[in-house]
User: What shape does this take?
Amino acid sequence: MRTQRLTSYSYLLLGLFFMGVFTFIPVFLSAYLSLFRWNVSSPEPAFTWFSNYLEVFKAPLFWLVLRNNFIYAFTTIPVSMCLALFLAILVNQKMGTIKSFYRVSLFYPTMIPMVAAAMLWVWIFNPGLGIFNYYLGFLGVPRIEWLYDMRYALIAIIIMSIWKNFGYYMLIFLAGLQSIPNHYYEAAAIEGAGGWKKFRYITLPMLAPATLFVFVVAIISSFQVFDQVFIMTQGGPGDRTNVLVFYIYQHAFRFWDLGMGSTLTTLFILGLLFAIWLVFRVIGRKVYYEV
Amino acid sequence: MRKIIFLVTVFFFITGLLSTSEIWAQKEKGKPKLLRLTFYYPVGVAGPLARVIGEMTDKFNKEHEGRIEVVPVYSGDYDPTMQKVQTAIMAGNPPDIFMVEISELPTLLAMDSVLSLDDYVKKLGKEYWDDFFPPFRENAVIGGKVYGIPFQRSTPVLYWNKEVFKAAGLDPEKPPKTWNELKDYATKLTVRDAKSGDVKQWGVTISGGWNDWLFEAFVRQNGSFLISADGLTANFDSKESIEALDFWVELKHRLKVGPPHSTWGSTPPDFVGGRTALLYHSTGILTFLKRSAKFDFGVTFMPQKKTFGAAVGGANLMIAKKIPKERQEAAWKYIEWMSNVKNTAEWSAASGYVAVRQSAYDDPVMKEHVSKNPEYLVARDQLKFAHGKMMAKNFQKVREILKRQLDDSAAGKIVPAEALKIAQKEIQAVIK
Assistant: This one.
């Protein structure tokens, strides 16, 4: 028994080593550094207690960034999850060989790198030459400046991100759907349940673990959004697409304000941990796992 | 148990490998002196300029074979280059030679990371240093000491599409010369869809992305400046600056003859695609436009208010302070070579950047180049009216603050006087 435990720990050791070097140490180090003033004006770190935190909350830009990120999260998460579920159910139907074609084409955006996709969408959103306005034109929508208009830039990023992310969620839903035993549906059919009732009382509850997983992943990824902002707008125009990670990046690597960057990082990690704890507390208990 | 032994062996094997590579590195040091220098450089405009730098450096390395080898490292746009240089400096392993955007000098000095080149420059005498165009020299000097050698340098200019001038009934050979003419022309050149009112062709595009740099040009044209030459006093809410911003708001918001926002990379294709009749952009895109535009276009000075005016831009060659003396000497040899008359001429002809030395324009390569393409001389001639670019500590923050106010003003969210008052307060706080 003892040796068995020892062996399993020794297996974990390597993983723990890399986690430690690349995750835990940096996390605690940045929490520690967040108590220092360390930037271009003060090249030697100076201990200043929590003054960085006060400065963060005092900056109006921080609240705008937070607002942008919450708008992004509250739109991308429900829309991409509903879309993913809907399409997963659709491609799970019996429809012969064409099915795999559909699955691949729906999953395709997830497979291309985010940076490449972002470059592509810069052109799709181009007001004069892009196809997005071209097609909207058929619907009678007047020309929109998308990435160059303060009112629409964030919406453009949201549209692009939903397109990019829903395929991954769809795949998880699809796996969940396929693990639901067919006899539940057969039993329900014998009892005379219709399509909606089957969905409501079998599919949805059985998908709960997959849904919880997708939800947590979606929350994390919606607060980690960075690549598309970096490529498409650089946070502009007028900071209307500036989001948390980009804001951290600006402080740490553009302004070279390491104290401030560490402070924002620490707040970011705490916020995200809290959000996920909340999700597991509120929803996690209701999820039923079939053993 | 065997597994533990196995893991332990792997561990020692890896650490063993690491220490042998250490020994290898030391052996390398013991060899007869070949100094291998790293050179970080950006390419701020479109084009195969990385190849040109590579070819020039190869030539230098051949001439110094066995003694010096410069390894050029393309480090992206201006911002990523500055980040990489800063990161390397913080990590105590700076590139020996680097080229960063000119306004970053005070930040680098605050980090005590740039070598003063005074002694080297003095040794070459007056005819070396005084040969650089005066406005280019300004951003290389702080407190009377030289820290950089001008190399990849530009100014913004105005491009105009001659064909759409004709279509609008304007003389295609007469670009706007004053702000008032600019407003007038831009209004005439804006084409809207008769039914929906959508703009099909903008009159004038003042590019975003580096709009802080273009704004400085407008302030110069109105006879004022944004940050004092010593980099310590902000002057963003002067009457002249407010007037300049109000002129932008008039074009972009009230008359709607120019897009309120855009990016630095998107506007040259817009011009090529006929989406805008007039374009404010760097002279560095001239080669790209010449290759891509299917119509006749012209290059001219940016229109004047009280005077013609511009802030110079680009990057200077610099040497890291915290490297051994012999490496500094070798780095200087490279910079001296790169900045000789022949090479500055060659670089200018290949890139479209302004040749930094006045005598480069007497070089036969350059003479032939500009006799075929006289439009390359516009930026040089505009230098008579150009000034050093504003520079200060924390310049990246300065840019972000200013750009935010410029963007908000252009969208009509805030009036210019108020926007610049905020900019003044915030910027003064970060540069002092």
Chain A has 13 helices and two strands. The interface with chain B takes residues 3, 6-7, 10-11, 13-14, 39-41, 43, 61, 122, 126, 128-129, 142-143, 145, 147-150, 233-234, 236-239, 250, 253-256 of chain A (CB under 8 Å). The longest helix of chain A spans residues 2-33.
